[in-house]
Amino acid sequence: MSLPLLPGYSFNKNLGKEKFHKSQHWGFCNHVGMLVNEDKPGIGGEPLFGRYLKPKYSVFPRGLGSDAPSWVAFDKQVLSFDAYFEDEVPEKNQELYRIRHCKIYFYLEDDTIQVVEPQLKNSGMPQGTFIRRHRIPLPPPNEDQFYTIHDFNINIDIVLYSRVFKIYNCDQFTKNFLRKMGVVVNPPGCCPADPYMKERKKTLDRMNPFRPYERFDTLRQFLEHDGHVLRFYCLWDDSESMFGDPRELVLHYFLSDDTIEVKEVIPANSGRDAIPLFLNRRKLPKFAPTGIYHPGQITDRTILNVFGELVGNRGRCLLDNCKIGALKQEFYKAEDLKIGTIINIWGRKVLLCDCDEFTKQYYKTKYGVVDFTPIPYKNPPPPKVEKTFPPYHGYGSEEDSLCSCLGLMPKPPQKDFKKFMEKDSFGLVSHVLRFLAKLDTEDCVDKDRRFIISYYLSDDTLSVYEPRMRNSGVLGGKFLERGRIKKPGQLLFKSEPSEFYKAQDLFVGAHVCFNGHVFILLNGDEYAFTYMEQHADEFPMSNIEIILKKLKAIGSPSAREIKLVFASTDPKHTKVLDYETFRDVMMNITNGKLTEHEIMTIGRYYSVREDSDADLTFLLALAQEQLKKYTFEVFDKMIAMCIYKDQAKIGLLPSSAVRTLCKSFRMPVSDDLLRALLSKFGDSQEQIDYRKFFCAVNWRVNQVPPFQALTCPNNEDVWNYVAPPLPVKCVRYLPLLADLFGLEDQS
Q1: Is residue 318 within 8 Å of residue 340, measured between CB atoms?
Q2: 0.85 exceeded by the pTM?
Q3: What is its main location (predicted)?
Q4: Of 524, 542, 560, which residue is a domain's last?
């Protein structure tokens, strides 16, 4: 028996309680007022009456499953449930409710739900997405919570926004996933049929179409064979008609709709108009032409008027399924076409001669045809008439005159732009081969003259320059303007193009004739030798492999004598010879069969390259003489610029950077001399101590004594040969003998 609710008869639950505050659920986040935490207790730190706190921990123990977030672990994973719901129809007597089928999709990545209703034909209701994808709350009194995977199963009812959905089945992936989650999956149920749809189906089955209807289903054929075309190469022999000739055709059979298109192959200069199509795309009848048909005589359907005009003015028409009296036409199909068949193209007999690979594979797969022997149908090509050009008339260049013979509209000759871009000078690469030459003459004045021949690789042009010599009686300067030079012994007025000097025609020891002047090439600069050795496949005179084969063929019969000759020229057994002695030995053992350039290539390949102090002094003397001549004294500014570019502050710069700096300050030193100086001051990594370099070339601070000019006797035999560049002084002959005759008996 409970006590009455009167003063003094009830217990005070707040006795001894000190906290009566109300928990704060609202706060500010990013200066926006919002619900911060709804899990806080009620008054005084105690939950309110009837309040249920959500669990803070998962039902699964820690360590199970993947550590990846749900939107990564369950990406593109969706549970699919088959469901239905009853929709009441209060305004109709024929039906009280409807059964509406739907699909419920549960997205595992974010626990969102989407309900989709399949569309029915002529339903009269907006169907499709019934509930858009979002998180759906549970029905009251748990509307503060949302549906999770544990709320779904088969043969259960779920309430989505006060509408009851009955889940009766799901797909196999959903069943497996629910079992892995520990859910006992119920057996699938059945979906009741909609009574209204039953009655409607019976009515539709009893109804006949209002008009005669016969369906021709061509969609499947179109979807299977769209873009598939059979190609046949045909021949139409029209020789019997006046001015007729055999004509080549190409037949296209479209498998998507059994239509045929014919194109004519019109040869060049045939005199025929270039029409786009010989036969437009359409179905091709086998027996055509057959005459003119009345309108409506050819139709896909046959209609019978049953009552005629007995029933008023309206007749009763039915579709004639038997097609009595219908005009039947036979059209060409794919099985009617094969190689060797003669088809009728509107009265023209066309022979199928060949087909393409796709057509062969199609007939081999579908019809089992294996014989695709083509029928020769093309006439042999006419003999090619050799085009002859008139001789050169002497005006302009030969290429320009030839362009006027190639077409009615003369065009300027095309230059090799790719070669120009590859071989044009850029940066520190000049792509110019320079050679020292003299005139091949007995004149006492001209035989002492020296010339520098420059060959430009970008456009195969040549220029000749004569250095000025004191008291020679010759002015010097430009001897020959830059341009292409013809080889001697060619007719001026001829039809064939003339031959011009190429880079392969220039080598040390070669005799070249430039406009009647015969030059002998005596030497080349370091860049020319290096370039020719790097492109040995283009320059056989610098190809060490070809030269060694040639030398081996010459010296193989007398290998022992050659070894004795080298041993006798080296009595101290130093295993090296100076270049002058080495050249004399090579000229003796080859009897002049090797050119000077080939001997230089061998000497450079087996040379001992030593950087001596004498060479450095010689180069510094040459450089300071030129700098002193032009009063060049801006070395402090150049060192300051090097310090500015030296970001690492290590006192070193690349050789290319120092050379570019010298060019930018217009340092009056030739490029070859500057390269040689930089090579003397460079280390193994081509780094240069710029302070040491500019202090060495400073003729004001560190002046080098002037060098003594080399005196050469004015003798023709002496000038037949000019020493190679300074780095090649001595040659190691033992490796040469080892490459030629092996390692035995080389001492």
Answers
A1: no
A2: no
A3: cytoplasm
A4: 542
